[in-house]
Amino acid sequence: MAMKIRLARGGSKKRPHYAVVAADARMPRDGRFIEKLGTYNPLLAKDNEERVQLNAERIQYWLGQGAQPTDRVARFLEAAGLVAKTERNNPKKAVPGKASTERAAKKAARDAAPAEEAAAE
């Protein structure tokens, strides 16, 4: 059975609250899970210690059983020092998108047109 350590959403509309759970990978996001391992409340300030609460002992157990954390949970575990930090590389992050590139080209052409007319006079 493929196990995941992931977030299960709770809370009302526009007021999210997540549980960090160990679940079968085939179950839906908010569906059946095996064990609740912690909580995550994104509405709290980033420096608030209650924003992310984890049961380190049980998380270590599930990692030992072969459970794979999702990307977001892996970042929580790295911050808590439960797993080794992995190097991430996203070379396209700083590259502007297609629409932004087109807007910049139009603006450059528009700005260059009056300069050419002034130089011709």
TrEMBL record:
GO terms for biological process: translation. PANTHER family: 30S RIBOSOMAL PROTEIN S16, SMALL RIBOSOMAL SUBUNIT PROTEIN BS16M. It comes from Ketogulonicigenium vulgare (strain WSH-001). Belongs to the bacterial ribosomal protein bS16 family. Residues 100-110 have a biased composition (Basic and acidic residues). This is Small ribosomal subunit protein bS16. GO terms for cellular component: cytoplasm; small ribosomal subunit. Residues 86-121 are annotated as: Disordered. One of its GO terms (molecular function) is structural constituent of ribosome. Keywords: Ribonucleoprotein, Ribosomal protein.
